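Data availability (excerpt). All sequences and predicted token strings are deposited with the supplementary files. A representative entry, PQQ-like beta-propeller repeat protein, is shown inline so that the format can be inspected without opening the archive.
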Amino acid sequence: MKRIFYALLFFLLYTYTSANAQELWSANSSGSVLQKDINIDGNILILKSGSLHCLSKSTGNEVWSTKIDKAKSFVRISKSTLIQVLSETDTFIINITDGKILYNSIEAKHASPRIRYSSNRLLVWASGSNLTEAILLDKVSGEVLSKTKIADGVAKELDTFLQPNGDFIVFSTFGVSYITASGKLNYNTPLKIAESAKQLAAYYTPTLKMFPTANPDHKAVIKDGYLLNLNIKTGQVNAETELASALVTFDNLDEQQVIIGGQIKKDLQLAVYDKSTCKEIRKGAIKVANTGSILRHQNDLFVISTSTVGGSTIKLVDFNTLALKADKTYKTGGQYLGTLFNSEKGIGVTSAYSINYFNPTSFESTGGTKHYIHSGKTNLEAGDDVYFFSNGYLGKVNKTKGEETLLYKDKLSVKLMEEEQPQLQLTEDGIIVVASQSVAKVDLNGNLVYNEHFAPPGPSAGSVLGNALLLAASSYLAVDAQEKSNASTSVSSKQYWTNEQKTFEAIGGEFGSKIRERFSKSANAMHYQVILTKGDAGNFKLIKFNKQTGKVDGELLVDSRTPDYVFDPVESTIYLFTADSIKAKKI
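Structure token line:
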């Protein structure tokens, strides 16, 4: 009898603890919190209008604080110990190990800087009315490695090309600058600006594009209405020619040649150029307004004329003469078409809504996507495939093969809040559709693993919470967008986690030890998501949902349908914020 009594007591205590979670600590707090996140060592970052604070995950006590007047927001710089903080008038770069300010744009008399980074370096391109300089920082330690003057006055950064060895080639309104990973300025070469580009400056940014040539050290560059051959090792301009217009479209033909079309009113001036000499090989002109892209295919050239309504027209041009073959055009049904590409199904063309394919000889349609929306916000790139969730259909598209495949044979009835855009998460054994109140998983064989929906706590709350919940998953594991787009379907969050861990192996001292300990605890933290839903007795609760299994692994009762919180999936802890306190709850 006693055994039954104690078993029942244990069950009741366990149920109560599970529902209410375990309170780890409570700390006093004052003032509204603008933004909160989890630091890479597990401590808590909170931003207020006048300061940034780091609180201990163990006690809630302040680890460090940094004064930032009129602060608005911050963003963690991926795979680094640095964050960028924006105020109403200023930009800061802060080392989150100690809160030290490494860069302040106002003190440096700069406007908002552009930040570019490699695997271990951070380049701050800082431009002001009297000075433009490049500031190089170590991305892990935050050490300022160099400050290099680029120009007197404003030199706006246009694009940066990262070299395999970690060096930076920066094109700006001044010219081109080469900055090594060690902070040395190899060269700083001014480049010409065509008059056609100057006329567009107030309305349009002219094309900037760099192409390979037969010489690995030489690149063909389209910039500011010019085609030039640039030695990227020395900064020497070997050849250059002014283009017909700064409004250009192009196709990189091979190592020796590039074709460029310059738009002048309703005429497209076409020319084939030698990349080494930048000399014109042959030219022609056709009547085409609003040119999208051009594509060479054997002895033909396809030119797309874009339209905002009623589809667009793809015209056929003789590549050898650059004259229009007026007898053949291809009418498309989509809007805002602009990209042509070669595929196994013929010529592919993208629109905002779909991809169409046509035979390059007969101009007859060879197929197209039915469910995929090219501009969809749910799309997830993984290698050569793009996964999508559109109008209830879950599938993937391979543009080169011209294939659209449904991953689940029927519509997937995921319940969404009004105007909500779900996100996709690719795992080793399936794909997960994540929304604010719903989560569904389909395995790689097309079987539905689960499809769970949790009642929203109140009207419109779910759509707001959805972003917060999805951000929680990325707060502790920042993955570069480039890494995501290059990932293969077999790459899992565990492998991302391992890559992130390696980044911080060089950090010494107690902070480095804490990071490595944190990363070693769980490679599966991305499997968890916290969802706010209605409780059983008219109250509300936060549930810890396991996206791998589809099970609820924990829950926490809350007394508000709009709780202010941040979730740390590594420690399985929810930090609840009120007007006067912060509470840590183990869930």
